[in-house]
Design brief:
It is a single chain. With 86 residues, the protein is mainly β. It contains one helix and five strands. The protein has a domain of 52 residues. The strands form two sheets. A three-stranded antiparallel β-sheet has the order 4-3-5. The chain has a two-stranded antiparallel ribbon with strand order 1-2. The protein is elongated and about 40 Å long.
């Protein structure tokens, strides 16, 4: 049986490759928005489905949650609760 452990890089020290140390480059996009929402959907035949979605915008997060709805019906988002984000 093999056991693998994920490698953890220490960003302040950089990544060492051969005789060269590669330091992480700071991002110029310091502020990134992420939305995580809990969404309630209702189908055309009255069923209810709840899902969690995430994305860079609220619309993208709701669309991500919509992708988990069963494919046998049309689903409409009726309410959502922002779990994380602006």
């Amino acid at each position: 049986m093999n056991l693998s452990t994920p490698t953890r890089l220490d960003p302040p020290r950089g990544l060492r490759r051969g005789n060269t140390t590669i330091h992480p480059v700071p991002s110029t996009n310091a502020v990134r928005t992420q939305h995580v929402v809990s969404v309630e959907f209702v189908s055309s035949d009255g069923r209810v489905w709840q899902a969690v979605g995430g994305g860079n915008t609220l619309a993208a997060a709701v669309a991500f949650a919509h992708d988990s709805c069963p494919t046998d019906s049309m689903w409409e988002a009726v309410r959502w609760n922002e779990l994380y984000g602006d």
